Amino acid sequence: MNQTTRYLQSVSDQQAIEIGALVNYLLIDAIKVGASDIHIEPWESTLVVRIRLNGVLNELVHLPLDLMEKISGRLKVMANLISYQTDLPQEGHAPANAELGGVELRISVFPTVRGEKIVIRIFDPSNRSFDLGSLGFEEETLQTFIKLLARPSGLILLTGPTGSGKTTAIYAALYHLVQRSGPAISISSVEDPVEFNLPMISQAQINPHKEFTYPVALRSLMRQDPQVIMVGEIRDPETAAIAVQAGLTGHLVISTIHSGSTAGVFARLINMDIEPFLLASSVSGVIGLRLIRKNCTYCAQPYQPEPGFLRLLPPEALETAAFRRGVGCAECVHTGYSGRTAVTEMLVVNEVLRDAILQKMPTRSLQQVAIQQGMQTLWDMGLRRALSGQTPLEEILRVVAVDQF
């Protein structure tokens, strides 16, 4: 039983509930199990509190709907928001607090027809490691990534859905460059928002209200003599053009871009009016990233996936398969999973791929060229993890889109 439930059972009636204590218990319960987000949302008859554990939402507790305004008010005070404003979205930040174990909170309030929905993102500095080796990258991906980071110029792009570990991977790459070169390297970043302060790196946070946008920041940054530039996200043609230009003019640029697939990044950039010959010359590599849940080491047991799933696998893979799945225990909060690791797809742009990009080949054909050049797909990499018992086969199918095998 969690502390929130214990507290609610210990009070005589709803009037006796201390809102400050209740909010603290909710936060402590989420932090203790390693949740990344807390969702507090009014449903038809209850105020539901859910936590995101290893990327998946789990119910924590249901509260009386009458508590909604009080909880919302308390969280707004913590994040320095306007407490009486309930009809507009608000975002704020609650600094690290010793009572909550030193975690920082980013609080987002959104008005719905039933009341305010609140999402709290938890940043635990003690839980964040920006070491390339601890990202869980496959050994060959890691070595290729380190080689790309050793180049003096070029554009390295990371792609994947929200929450797939792109920012953590970029921070780890920057940290690696600082450790490798020390004070001899000048690194600058433009982010929205800055999630963690990194040593020896100039980090800037864009502010669209004051017209401090990605393009404005990047243009100014080019006059700051940086060797490495990190761009939080390429989301418009102007940012794309500056990032590509910087990659061509002797800077190492690392950024993220949203695309359906790793090979689809090129079509996305061409749609942003970037000429194929500029892409072929500037992009040195694209990493597709997904996060999968790992089996709990305490309760994982051998199991046999459904026959329908097994038909997706090559027969020779089944001969050596050692499928395992966590059944749930106290150690993993009865989820069967403990922690997450990365599944990657590393596309390195070589001469053959450059020609394919110049010919404006469709994404599916580019993907085939990359595979012929030795690229291991997300499905290949994920399947390896499932066959060796690190995660169930169903988890790979949940995370990797079916059209990617």
Q: Give me the CATH fold name of the largest domain.
A: Rossmann fold
Strands side by side in the biggest sheet: 9-8-10-11-7-12-15
CATH C-level class of the largest domain: Alpha Beta
Computed Rg: 23 Å
The percent range for strand residues is 25-35%
* Helix content class: 25-40%
| pLDDT < 50 stretches | none
Annotate the secondary structure layout:
Layout lengths: L2 H8 L8 H14 L4 E6 L3 E8 L2 E9 L3 H11 L11 E8 L5 E10 L2 E9 L15 H11 L4 E6 L6 H16 L5 E5 L10 E4 L8 H8 L6 E4 L5 H12 L3 E5 L7 H8 L4 H7 E13 L4 E3 L4 H4 L4 H5 L4 E3 L10 E12 L2 H8 L4 H10 L5 H10 L5 H7 L6
Kindly describe this structure.
This protein has 405 residues and is α/β, with parallel strands linked by helices. The protein has two domains: 3-126, Beta-Lactamase (2-Layer Sandwich), CATH 3.30.450.90; 128-404, P-loop containing nucleotide triphosphate hydrolases (Rossmann fold). 34% of the residues lie in helices and 26% in strands. The protein contains 15 helices and 15 strands.
Which key terms come to mind for this protein?
405 residues, Beta-Lactamase, 34% helix, 15 helices, alpha/beta, 7-stranded mixed β-sheet, Rossmann fold, single chain, 2 domains, 6-stranded antiparallel β-sheet, globular
Short description:
The protein has about 400 residues and is α/β, with parallel strands linked by helices. It has 15 helices and 15 strands. The protein folds into 2 domains: about 5-125, Beta-Lactamase, CATH 3.30.450; about 130-405, Rossmann fold (3-Layer(aba) Sandwich).
